[in-house]
Amino acid sequence: MSEIDLSYAVEVLEHEAAAVRGLVGRIDAEHFGAAARLILACSGRTLVTGMGKAFLIGQKISATLASTGTPSLALHAGEALHGDLGRAVAGDVALVISNSGRTRESVELLAPLKKLGVSVIAMTGDQSSPLAQHADVLLDIGNLDEACPLGLAPTTTTTAMLALGDALALTVLKARDFQREDYARFHPAGSLGRGLLEVEELMRQGDDYAVIEERQPLREALLRITRVRAGAISVTDDEGRLVGIFTDGDLRRRLVKGASIDELKIADLMTRDPTTIQTGRLVSEAIRIMRERKFDELPVVDGEGRSVGVLDIQDVLGIA
Fold first, then answer.
1. Residue 258: CB partners within 8 Å, gap ≥ 6?
2. pTM for this structure?
3. Which letter does DSSP use for residue 212 in this model?
4. I need a labelling partner for 65 at 20 to 30 A (CA). Which of 46, 173, 175, 280 fits?
């Protein structure tokens, strides 16, 4: 068994990095700009298709498009020729990926796509290929040598395809003025998406939210805290504006000093003018406040200062 040649691994990375750097000179208005405008103006979906490793790269490009505001579908060229072409409709745009531009299934797909009214963007390394010649827009990655020592396994070419696809997807994202809030709508699960949600989407409200008017007796506040299994209760004035927050810790500290529950009033125990967060703000911002102030609960108010809910630390654990 031969020893592992780490220097060769470095050569591979340098080779592929050079190919990506070489793409910079291919970003122009005539080709790249035209492809971006075509996708931006698309009334349907961007279909990303190809065969073999090119299709695997296409799946990633399609996923990036879809998650950044461009409806997209990864469509295997071989399956498309055997019925899955029914997924395409007039107004779609197809990004067809093939390094040689001569892959049989990808080339055979061109005529049916055009008959359906689908515009075609070709991503290839051969400008003279059938794919390049019959596409509406050409994205040329250039004639690249593979990093594979045999010169066979798709390596440098697929890296270049992926990088160019990322550049295309993110250029379209920027043109759409796609914001963090938009991104959150497509990533509702996991810490990333949940952190980008607005606070009202995660806050406790309704029957799960402990709130009381400041004139109510302390015993009623304790009952409501217990009922919703909360550690605090929001205190409002007659018009629903938040005036304070009362925690079970506030009560314990007073009882330790010998006070009687019957003698205590919410107004005497609550923290007045508590730190709050307004509706429309991101959960990630609320988490930052809670961490910095070491809060377990953060009241949520509307634009008029009315109490509408509370964000509990238990509901945001694990969110970055």
1. none
2. 0.72
3. E
4. 280
